[in-house]
Amino acid sequence: MKFQEQVPLRDYTTFHVPAHARYFSVFSDSEMLEQLPALTLPLLILGGGSNILFTRDFNGYVLKNEIRGITVLHEDDDAVYVKAGAGEPWHPFVSFCVDKGWGGLENLSLIPGNVGAAPMQNIGAYGVELQDVFWDLEAFHLQDRKLVTFTRNDCAFGYRDSIFKGQYRNQFVILNVTFRLTKKPIFHTRYGALEQELEQMGVTELTLKSISQAVCNIRMSKLPDPDRMGSAGSFFKNPVIPSAHYEELKIHYPDIPGFQQGADAVKVYAGWLIEQCGWKGYRSGDAGCYPNQALVLVNYGSASGQEILNLSESIRESVKLRFSIDLEREVNVY
Ligand code: FAD
Ligand code: NAP
Q1: What distance in Å separates the CA atoms of residue 54 and residue 64, rounded to the nearest whole number?
Q2: CA 118, CA 47: separation in Å to the nearest integer?
Q3: What is the DSSP string of 175-187?
């Protein structure tokens, strides 16, 4: 594997902040990883760069994953088992499956990034998470230099979380993911604005395509286009707090939105908390809080990663002060 030195990373992430990789290379199969020299510096696997914020130069190896390929492994009366290379761009893969009539990914339309990063934070949107369609994945263990298969249980998926973000952080390179997609789709439309959008589109009979289109319409109207404005989507996770805390907040803020999670916890919408603290539409230099969606921090052009991080810390502090809630970052900061 050949490395380039001091490679600019600005166009490799959707935040488009300046940073350099000390060493940079691409790989398109696991054999190339087996040839890696013994690593004395940190290593970062790069997918589409849509969930990464660089706050400084990366003093180590950045390896861009370009493993491609989509294969049907197995098919029965109910389901199709589809394997996709980790470097396949996510949305085109979703569209491919929707066009084939394979159900399960339609609510996850238009999420930026690549297939390989999807299990990292168990990507989710509009009531569906990756774990709902996940079958298994193959990963390369960097230390032991061997291939390991992970089933759903092995991945310890949680809310925007998995074992690869926690215990196994930086230990594995995900090479491919296999999905179990259904031939008898179950439609998930009771979420946020989705039902409303389908109605506005005049959809009377649900199809995978109509749901995918509705999701794309909402996202295009609400979220910044990564090609035009720097962002990494939601900067923070929606916090899950004890029900007692939520009830206490409701006394002072009767409108606070909450979604029951099991018996004793409530998921609170982080965007609402941030908006209440007056940040929505805030801009300092080129770092800002997106006017249409307070949970999204944006780079209007020439913000540095550190400026975005500083803004996020100020937001976090004010939410903590006002609501006694600790916001947890969703974006991977380097
Ligand atoms: P990257 O940003 O390249 O990497 C993310 C992390 O995963 C890094 O730590 C990286 O080292 C690691 N990684 C990447 N590939 C591999 C691999 N093959 N093996 C091991 N580690 C790897 N997310 C959601 O969950 N739901 C949404 O609805 C959503 N909407 C978004 C909207 C916008 C406008 C944007 C900009 C982002 C959004 N995101 C959303 C966040 C992001 O798109 C997803 O998390 C996506 O899966 C990241 O993919 P990526 O290939 O860009 O990962
Ligand atoms: P929205 O529809 O305005 O809803 C606001 C929040 O309320 C969402 O974050 C969602 O939580 C929660 N919510 C709405 N309806 C719910 C229900 N019926 N049950 C439980 N929770 C509900 O949200 P949005 O900001 O436009 O985003 C729409 C979807 O896309 C969400 O699922 C969101 O997570 C996803 N998205 C994610 C990112 C990212 O970078 N991670 C960026 C943009 C959009 P959840 O977030 O937990 O689903």
Answers
A1: 15
A2: 10
A3: EEEEEEEESS---
Residue nearest to atom 13 of ligand 2 (CA): 192
pLDDT digits (tens, 9 = 90+) for 153-199: 999 999 999 999 999 999 999 999 999 999 998 999 988 799 999 99
CA distance 304 to 54: 8
Which two tokens mark 80?
Answer: 């199709």
pTM across the whole model: 0.96
User: Which residue is catalytic, options 50, 109, 234, 304?
Assistant: 234
Distances (CA, A) of 41 to 2, 32, 38, 60: 16, 18, 9, 5
Q: Which residues pair with 61 in a beta bridge?
A: 23, 43
Options 138, 160, 231, 316, the catalytic residue: 160
Contact yes or no for 26/173 (Cβ under 8 A): no
234 is catalytic: yes
Q: Give the residues surrounding ligand 1 with Cβ less than 6 Å away.
A: 14, 44-52, 65, 86, 111-114, 116-118, 120-121, 123-125, 173-174, 223, 226, 231-233, 332
